[in-house]
Amino acid sequence: RAALAYDEHSRPLVLDFKHGGRTDMAATFAGWMAQAGGELVEEADAFLPVPLHPERLAARRFNQAGLLAQALCKRAAGRFDPDSLRRTRATPSQGGLSADGRRRNVAGAFAMRDGARAAVAGKRLVLVDDVYTTGATLSACARVLKRAGAARVDAVALCRVVRPRDGLI
Fold first, then answer.
1. What is the pairing mode between strands 152-160 and 124-132?
2. Whole-prediction pTM value?
3. Beta carbons within 10 angstroms of residue 67's beta carbon
């Protein structure tokens, strides 16, 4: 689920948040995401942000998905879990890649941290990201979590790219 369509109105908000350091926007965005997520958010045992590779995290200074997940947690009973899932390799930006290119780009890029399986086994998890484009990143993360024993993995994003062929506009 996503709170907003990614378009000419939401794009500046996302880019200011992600690249402009407007981290103060996280709480407002999380409110919108909680509303869009509804029962998925209310029933979650834990919220996991899509992880950044340590090199990208150092360059950006924060994980925008982490800030969203943390703020979303404050609105729900689930716990914030920024540590169970990790990005194992530095992938190039997904921008400009086709759906197949995005899937190939993130294939094998995520793994569970040592000893983290118990934190997700049997749990209802919500993955959190800023922008859902093709679902390649969220699917790659969900696959790892399901293999680790998660009972259910859902996703909530701030924005979703909507194309006419999606049938949603």
1. parallel
2. 0.91
3. 23
Q: What's the CA gap between 95 and 76, in Å, rounded?
A: 32
Tens digits of per-residue pLDDT, 80-122? 999 999 999 888 677 787 888 888 878 888 999 999 999 999 9
Q: What is the DSSP letter of 53?
A: P
CB atoms within 10 A of CB 38: 11
Residue 114 to residue 117: CA distance in whole angstroms = 8
Output the six-digit token pair for 80. Answer: 């914030």
Q: Would you mind telling me the total number of residues written for the chain in this entry? A: 169
- Give the whole-angstrom CA distance, residue 75 versus residue 67: 13
β-bridge mates for residue 4, sequence order? 159
Residues 72, 48 contacting (CB under 8 angstroms): no
How many Cβ atoms sit within 10 Å of the Cβ of residue 145? 25
